[in-house]
Design goal:
By secondary structure, the chain is an alpha+beta fold. The chain contains 2 helices and 3 strands, in the order E-H-E-H-E. Helix content is about 30%, strand content about 25%. The protein has a 3-stranded antiparallel sheet with strand order 2-1-3, with no helix packed on it. The longest helix is centred in the middle third of the chain and has 9 residues.
């Protein structure tokens, strides 16, 4: 039986506030778990999460 490795994770930090951004971008940030500026969350590194980060790349900072 093969050992199951832990999924790779990335840390996402909201560096720009959500005032004045489109509804869709605000919803994407909320879906990632980002509520306040300078808040950091840890997410699994999947293509879906990467696509969400790419949508709001001007608002977030990603740490591997």
């Amino acid at each position: 039986m093969a050992k199951q490795s832990q999924p790779k994770t990335i840390k996402v930090t909201l560096v720009k506030g959500m005032i004045g951004v489109t509804k869709g971008h605000k919803a994407t940030a909320l879906a990632l778990g980002l509520r306040k500026r300078n808040q950091t969350v840890e997410q699994n590194d999947t293509p879906v999460i990467r696509g969400m980060i790419n949508t709001i790349r001007y608002m977030v900072e990603v740490t591997e």
